[in-house]
Design brief:
Blueprint: H1 11-16, H2 21-39, H3 42-50, H4 55-61, H5 66-69, H6 75-80, H7 86-90, H8 92-112, H9 120-147, H10 154-182, H11 185-195, H12 197-205, H13 225-248, H14 250-263, H15 265-272, H16 274-280, H17 285-314, H18 316-339, H19 344-373, H20 379-389, H21 392-398, H22 401-407, H23 410-419, H24 422-433
Helix pairs in contact: 2-9, 2-10, 2-12, 8-9, 8-11, 8-12, 9-20, 10-11, 10-17, 10-19, 13-14, 14-24, 15-21, 15-23, 17-18, 17-19, 18-19, 18-23, 18-24
Transmembrane segments: 23-49, 55-74, 95-112, 124-144, 164-181, 187-206, 252-274, 294-312, 319-340, 346-371, 383-404, 410-432
Protein name: Major facilitator superfamily permease
Subcellular location: Membrane
Length: 445
């Protein structure tokens, strides 16, 4: 086993990484992963509001999002259990991707033919099917991304994933709303279901990763049913956790997990109050949509590309330091915007552009870092653990965001969210000085 060493490549070599075929495939899979998200949240909420579903009920629908936060509970199944016939044909990762994509498309077609004003319970079940299938797809796609490319290409893979995901958010957000306004919700959701064909086609044409250290498909089947279940449980569920701490040690493992939980606290906490802040500053919905959903998305994509190049050049951990600093500085720029007498649309554009660029940059570095933590023997389960963990503290702390604003002010709130990023910066600085042990099977062809 070796210690992690940040790759040193020229800037042209780092940029050339984006020409690889599996990077483009990752863009398509990122699109497939991002498409269902808004269709069971903001877009669905707009539909429910239009048919006069109560705000209380619309709020309850948001609980469907918990599915994404608890995917770690069925990640061991996706990681270890073969699908009859399909896994033999496509392989472990692609078979689960395809099954999940068909689940998403089926749920979206079901929503297209449903009327929430008449059959709200059916709509809830169909939305849950979409969310569950989407979270399952995330597990398989994340595992494929980590196993299909070597460590020095994980930054580019993360950037391509984020780029595809952001494009999908535009399609499922503004695109679906436009179709609903011009035609109907049935047309909107039918077109969205058809768009899942991008993921289906990609799953069929990509290669199954060659480097898979799992022995799940060939585990001994002797002994009683209880003994077989105990062996499966240890390998699939306990094994990933035992492996993580065995490779890193308990102390360093806890520090790494603390960093994962704290790194996105700043932007998650700030994000809750972003739209209320824009409105309280006097900006109209059209101005917010034009800047945040239009130009802002382009800056996010630009940030992901730059982040991928920088990760390939200096490594994920050092890129995280830059990303963390960028996020803190952009939160401070929101505080500046809050105290300016008349910042205008130009001020809003500059602040949102900086925020989205830093978010794209930091997100790419963070995904690349999490990918490097996994052992290919437990890719899906370990990454699902990390991706579930990094949202939890932020969501818990974000619950008090409104209280901070009401009790103090927006400038104080943004200073507060900026300060929340400092612990993560201190931890990653410590981790750079104390290199972790690379996962077994880390060198991928």
């Amino acid at each position: 086993m070796t210690t992690e060493v940040a790759p040193r490549r020229s800037w042209l070599q780092a940029l050339a990484t984006y020409r690889r075929p599996h990077i483009f495939a990752m863009l398509c899979l990122g699109f497939s992963a991002g498409l269902p998200f808004l269709l069971v949240f903001a877009t669905l909420s707009a539909w429910l509001a239009q048919v006069d579903v109560s705000r209380t009920m619309i709020g309850l629908f948001s609980w469907i999002g918990i599915t994404y936060s608890i995917k770690v509970f069925w990640a061991p199944v996706v990681d270890r259990l073969p699908i009859p016939l399909l896994t033999r044909w496509l392989g472990r990762r692609r078979s689960w991707m395809l099954l999940a994509q068909f689940g998403v498309a089926t749920g979206l077609l079901g929503l297209a033919t449903s009327d929430p004003g008449v059959a709200l319970e059916l709509v809830a079940w169909l939305a849950l099917l979409v969310a569950f299938s989407s979270a399952t797809q995330d597990i398989a796609v994340d595992a494929w991304r980590i196993e299909a490319a070597p460590r020095d290409e994980q930054g580019a893979m993360a950037a391509a994933y984020q780029m595809g995901y952001r494009i999908a958010l535009l399609v499922a957000g503004a695109g679906a709303l436009f179709l609903a306004a011009e035609y109907s919700w049935m047309v909107a959701y039918t077109v969205m279901a058809a768009c899942m064909g991008v993921g289906v086609l990609t799953s069929l044409v990509i290669r199954e990763p060659a480097a898979q250290a799992s022995v799940a498909l060939n585990e001994p089947m002797d002994g009683s049913a209880l003994q077989r279940f105990a062996r499966w449980f240890y390998t699939a569920v306990a094994g990933p956790f035992v492996d993580f701490f065995a490779r890193n040690g308990v102390r360093l493992g806890i520090i790494i997990l603390a960093f994962i939980g704290l790194f996105r606290v700043t932007d998650i906490t700030m994000g809750v109050m972003a739209n209320p802040f824009y409105l309280d500053m006097g900006y109209t919905l059209k101005e917010i949509a034009a800047v945040a959903k239009g130009f802002g998305v382009l800056m996010t994509i630009f940030g992901t590309i730059v982040g991928g190049v920088v990760v390939a050049r200096i490594g994920a951990e050092r890129s995280l330091v830059l990303g963390g600093i960028f996020v803190i500085l952009t939160n401070l720029s929101f505080a500046l915007l809050a105290v300016l007498p008349d910042p205008g649309v130009a001020g809003l554009t500059m602040v949102i552009s900086a925020d989205n660029f830093s978010g794209g940059f930091a997100g790419t570095a963070f995904i690349a870092y999490l990918s490097g933590l996994t052992n290919v023997a437990y890719t899906a389960t370990q990454y699902a653990l990390f991706s579930s963990l990094f949202t939890l503290p932020g969501k818990l702390i974000a619950g008090g965001s409104g209280w901070v604003v009401d009790s103090f002010s927006y400038p104080v709130f943004f200073l507060y969210t900026s300060a929340l990023g400092i612990p993560a910066l201190l931890i990653i600085s410590y981790l750079i000085r104390h290199p972790r042990v690379s996962p077994q099977g880390d060198e991928k062809a």
